[in-house]
Each structure stands twice: as C-alpha cells, then as structure tokens.
Amino acid sequence: MSIKKIQSIIAGSPTKVGSIDVQELLPYEQGFYDPFLVFHHGIAKADPNIPTHIQGVGPHPHRGFSAISFIYKGGVHHQDSRGNNHIVYEGGTQWIHAGMGIIHSERVPANIFEHGGVQELLQVWVNTPAAHKMDQPHYYPATKADTPTITTEDGLVEILVPAGELEGKKGIIPTFTPVNTFMVNIKAGGKYTFHIPAKHQSLVYVLNGRVVYNNETTINKKHMALLEKQGNEFTIEALENSALFIGSGEPLNEPIYAHGPFVMNNQTEILQAFKDYQMGKMGVLIEEAN
User: Fold this and answer.
1) The dihedral sign for the CA sequence 17, 220, 162, 64
2) CA proximity to 221, closest of 237, 204, 207
3) Do you find a cis peptide bond into 109, omega within 30 degrees of 0?
C-alpha cells in the first residue's frame, strides 16, 4: 500500500441555482476533473410563504452524463419527462443516467418542514463514455436504508456506498465505468483509512466540520482536496463532527465538449442536442404539485 498525496485544495466560488445557494467546486481553473464534470454543494432554506412545488430547481434538460444528487439534509422531489415522480430524503441518492436526453426538476418536498426545513445536497455530474451518451435514460433512486453502509466498531464513522465498492460493500447503482461514491459522517475523533485504486481520479470534499488528511493536512468545511493518482490509500480523521464526500473514478480520456446542460464529444453533437431538445425529442415535463 502507498499513500495518495494531495494535489491541490480548492474552495470554489458561490453561485445560485434556482432557489439554492451553491458553492461550485468543479469545474475548476484547470477545467474538468475527468470523469467528474460538475460538483455543487447546495443549501436551501425552505420558505414557508412560497408553495414548495415552485421552490428548488425547475424543469431543465440533460444529455450525455449522469446527474447525481446526494442528499445530506431534508429531501428532493424529482420529476422527469420519463414519468418518474419520486422523493428521496436525507442519506439517499438520486442518480440519473441522462443518456440521449431527459428533462427533470428538483423541488423541495411538500413535507420539508417535517424534515428540518433545510435542503442540503451535493449535485455531481459524472461523464458518460461516448459509446453510451445516446442510450435511453435511466433513473435510480436509493434511500439511506437501501444503501450499503459501513460503520466502524467504535461507532464514530458511518460510510454510505451508493455506487462503487469499499471494503467488500458494493453500491446498488450501476455505472458505465468504475466510479466510487462515498457519503461519510465522522464524529470528532473518528478515523478511517480508505483504499482507492491508484488509476482513479479522486477527491475529498468536506461539507461540514474539519478533518485531517493523512495526519498532516487539515481540510476545512466547503473545501475540496484533489488527490494525485499515485498511491492507493489515505486516512481521514475528524477534528470535529464532520460530513464529507469521497469520489473516485477512472478517467475516460475522451474529448469533452460541454455547453449548458449538455456534455458531448464535439460541437456538432452539442448543436444536435439543442435541436433535439427544442423539437421535443427529450420528452415533456408537466410538473404535478407535490
């Protein structure tokens, strides 16, 4: 075993998506972090004076990648042009293989105030290989109860594995290429050593709290460590109660041409995506009030 070192630590920049306050970490100055395209940390406090079915993010299209929501607080009400209408709450995941095209919305659930009134999530885009960009779309919801979980003997570390594999626990969501996604909660003093394939691009993002990486580097909340490919293990220790996300995946090493909600391999494919969307080939979403 050898240690994965930190390549850089980034803080991103604030932006707004619908009614959600977002910290955008990826893409970053060097571009995309193949296979990860976009990484947003969103927090939205539900407004009791506005109908919940118009809070959040309204209908919008995607093509050519997977759009994933990892829910840390509250919940997300997903509806799409393929007929899916589903809510996932804290600890759950909503994974959309957009394929040739899908229109979806991500709203605040009607019972959000029963779940704390705050929606906190990560929205992560993972690139799809060229050979599968025009597949039929698929929607995979997973509750916390559905998700394979690792808990340390001392009870200080809980790791959810929506996709990929960790210590023999295999995620239930299929991926086109090897991708690991781990939702991690560590109480102060908790410690865990992760094993990640050396050829993976890997990242560690701290949503809340503060952790130490390999006993030497502190990562503060809303900061992301991008890791070097060399090495295959690292240790995380929590200085205070912390929530973090760890992602890794094999780079596709294919051309990336992105514009707005579409990620393809060249400009012609992007122009075709816009045309197909305008012609209704990605379907129609008429939202139902929640």
Assistant:
1) positive
2) 207
3) no
User: Could you give the CA distance from residue 236 to residue 229 in angstroms, rounded to a whole number?
Assistant: 17
Question: Do residues 219 and 213 lie in contact, with contact meaning Cβ atoms separated by under 8 Å?
Answer: yes
pLDDT tens digits, one per residue of 244-280: 999 999 999 999 999 999 999 999 999 999 999 999 9
The amino acid present at 242, given as its one-letter code, is S
Cα 242 to chain center, whole Å? 18
- C-beta of residue 112 within 8 angstroms of C-beta of residue 50: no
3-state class (DSSP) for residue 18: coil
How far is Cα 5 from Cα 214, in angstroms, rounded to an integer?
8
Give the separation between CA 26 and CA 214, rounded to whole angstroms. 24
CA 258 – CA 269 distance, rounded (Å): 10
End-to-end CA distance of the chain: give it in Å, rounded: 50
Confirm whether pTM is higher than 0.90.
yes
* Res. 17 pLDDT band, cuts 50 70 90: confident
Backbone φ, ψ for residue 278 (5° rounding): -65, -30
212: which 2 tokens? 């130490």
